[in-house]
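Researcher: Sequence recovery benchmark, item below. Answer with residues only.
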């Protein structure tokens, strides 16, 4: 299957909220409420605790907001965000929370006459659950698992465009920083320069703490950049991603500064073959286990199976790690419109590691690749 990159038309961008139908998203949840016999569903974002789900359902980008989703919909925030909410939360009246917010919420649930209210298990602390249960007398809190997260797995076309824009910026940033690499630079220095470039070039933020690993550090999949200086002969692993309009990208490439050792070239070619096998396997209807197996078999057949310890990939969207999972223990089946990573790796402790990661959109008959940075051979700087 040929690799493809996204193309964008030079059309003016609609105002925020015009392209995304938040009411349709909320309508899917309300339909589930009716099937489950619940009166309402709560999304509580307190200092970022459930920010992605609240943004997905309303467009709100602040760090404090509450959504009571029932036959009547209530959106509330405090005085720090009332003006922002008025601009971002289209079609919903904004209520202002004053005083202690848990007490306010308990009173509001009672005033709405709600009896059975769903509350997400993945983002609600035990303290909050117990305190709200104590104060909201006459209201039964019903723990529910992953309702919004499940909706978020399959992306709208608009979401795919936003992720593609983040991927495009991520690729551009990697090209920029490779042109600046010099012996003597530290990992931390490179990570900082690249993060600043992303922010200056239109990113909201980086999608995660950038991983820049020189030489032996690249053998640790979630390495933290430090003061290690770049030297001739090093492999350099970049695991990077920009966030654009709330949506994340994720890309990993490995390059060499100066002539790499033959073993490094051989491992690179092996991981590249596994990456291609994984991409070839990804399509709607395949299980996360089978997609993982397609890539893992390549590495196992070469005798390095024990050096590939993590799963093949994960979903990407408003969070850089979300469902589905592509791994030996996955319980997921891929659906058209999901956006996932394909990132096999081989890690030789104390020596080096190679991981090649692409971001792809699942389609009925294959996948569309959003990552455009070259990978066909080990790039030597």
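Model:
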């Amino acid at each position: 299957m040929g690799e493809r990159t996204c193309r964008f038309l030079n059309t003016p961008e609609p105002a925020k909220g015009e392209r995304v139908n938040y009411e349709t998203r909320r309508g899917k949840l309300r339909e589930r409420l009716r099937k489950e016999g619940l009166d309402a569903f709560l999304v509580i974002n307190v200092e970022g605790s459930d920010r992605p789900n609240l943004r997905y359902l309303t467009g709100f980008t602040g760090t404090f907001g509450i959504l009571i989703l029932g036959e009547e919909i209530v959106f509330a925030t405090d005085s720090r965000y009332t003006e922002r909410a008025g601009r971002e939360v289209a079609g919903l009246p904004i209520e202002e929370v004053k005083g202690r917010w848990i007490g306010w919420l308990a009173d509001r649930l009672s005033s709405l006459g709600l009896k059975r209210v769903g509350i997400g298990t993945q983002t609600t602390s035990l303290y909050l659950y117990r305190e709200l249960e104590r104060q909201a007398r006459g209201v039964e809190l019903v723990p529910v698992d992953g309702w919004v997260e499940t909706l978020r797995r399959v992306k709208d076309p608009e979401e795919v465009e936003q992720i593609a824009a983040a991927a495009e910026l991520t690729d551009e940033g990697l090209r920029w920083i490779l042109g600046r690499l010099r012996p003597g630079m530290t990992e931390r220095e490179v990570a900082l320069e690249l993060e600043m470039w992303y922010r200056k070039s239109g990113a909201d933020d980086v999608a995660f703490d950038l991983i820049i690993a020189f030489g032996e550090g690249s053998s640790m999949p979630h390495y933290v950049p430090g003061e290690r200086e770049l030297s001739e002969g090093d492999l350099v692993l970049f695991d990077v991603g920009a966030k654009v309009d709330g949506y994340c990208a994720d890309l990993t490439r490995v390059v060499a500064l100066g002539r790499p050792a033959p073993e490094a070239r051989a491992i690179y070619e092996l991981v590249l073959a596994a990456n291609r096998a994984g991409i070839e396997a990804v399509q709607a209807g395949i299980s996360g286990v089978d997609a993982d197996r397609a890539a893992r078999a390549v590495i196992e057949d070469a005798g390095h199976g024990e050096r590939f310890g993590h799963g093949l990939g994960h979903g990407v969207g408003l969070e850089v790690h979300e469902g589905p999972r592509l791994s030996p223990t996955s319980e997921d089946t891929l659906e058209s419109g999901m956006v996932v990573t394909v990132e096999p790796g081989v890690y030789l402790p104390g020596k080096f590691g190679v991981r090649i990661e692409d971001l792809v959109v699942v389609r009925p008959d294959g996948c569309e690749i959003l990552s455009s940075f070259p990978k066909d051979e080990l790039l030597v700087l």
